[in-house]
Design brief:
This protein has helices at about 5-25, 30-40, 45-65, and strands spanning about 70, 80, 95, 105. The chain has 2 domains: about 5-65, no CATH class; about 65-75 and about 80-120, no CATH class. It is elongated and about 65 Å long. The protein is mostly helical and about 120 residues long. Helix 1 packs antiparallel against helix 2 (about 30-40) and helix 1 (about 5-25) runs parallel beside helix 3. It starts with a helix and ends in a 17-residue tail after the last strand. The chain binds zinc ion (2 copies).
């Protein structure tokens, strides 16, 4: 490994670490781990780094919590659908139905399951 290779590796690893940070945080999934790993892979030759980064990307996509993202009603950041509490601002991103205790979308005014209108306010 020489300096040029190290720079190329950095250019490859940094966007990946940033993408991992955004996606893993939105899914509340060990983002510190996924940001850290690409950055320790830069200390090998470029070809090995590329192969390891690709393997890492495939592993991440297989392992990450599946599901669509929705916008947090408080901080507007993308958050995994099934999370109740926003991983960014730590506020409730959903309401809870006081009748059947189902999570209810923030903008809904009644529970989609039992049609109750008694929902938590925040
Ligand atoms: Zn939020
Ligand atoms: Zn309900």
């Amino acid at each position: 490994m020489n300096l040029v290779e190290l720079l190329i590796n950095l250019v490859l690893a940094i966007p990946m670490a940033i993408w991992f940070y955004k996606d893993a945080r939105a899914r509340d999934y060990m983002w510190y781990f996924w940001v850290f790993v690409p950055l320790i892979l830069i200390f090998s030759s470029t070809i090995i780094t590329i192969v390891l980064l690709l393997i890492l990307l495939v592993c991440y996509i297989m392992l990450r919590p599946k599901g669509n993202l929705f916008k947090c009603p408080h901080c507007q950041k993308a958050v995994l659908e099934e999370l109740f509490v926003c991983p960014f601002c730590r506020k409730n991103a959903k309401r809870e139905c006081l009748n059947c205790h189902e999570p209810v979308p923030w903008e809904a005014d009644q529970c989609p399951k039992c049609k109750s209108r008694s929902l938590t306010k925040e």
